[in-house]
Amino acid sequence: MKPGMIKLSVLYPSGEDKTFNMDYYLDSHIPLVAKLLGNAIKGATVEEGLGGPVPNSPATFAAIGNIYFESVDSFQNSFGPNASEILADLPNFTNAEPVVQISKVMA
Fold first, then answer.
1. CA–CA distance, 82 with 94 (Å, rounded to integer)
2. CA Rg, the chain, in Å?
């Protein structure tokens, strides 16, 4: 991604009481988001947590989804009108409260 782009990161915490269905996330949620946000999306990645900083420790996050946009306006204009539908789908694949961050790509 090029400097100046905006990145939306959604981090799904892991833990004993947390659930996350990666198959649903990949097969249903990601296509839903792609359909709703359309051409505003300039790139995306999905990461699955494998472990923590100490050998054999659990990952802090079960999964991380990243979506890239040209600008804050592009993000807000595409996500805002669709937020309720996107958020309504979360219980279908996780019971974790996601951690969300919007960042500016610097390099």
1. 19
2. 14
Task: Say yes or no to pLDDT of 1 above 90.
Answer: no
Q: Are 22 and 63 in contact (CB under 8 A)?
A: yes
Helix (H) or strand (E) holding 84: helix 83-88
CB burial string 50-81: b at 16+ within 10 A, e below? eeeeeeeeebebbbbbbbbbeeeebbeebbee
Does 95 have pLDDT greater than 90? yes
Q: What is the pLDDT of residues 39-88, one digit of tens each?
A: 999 999 999 999 999 999 999 999 999 999 999 999 999 999 999 999 99
* Six-digit token string for 83: 């937020």
Q: Which residues make beta-bridge pairs with 46?
A: 65
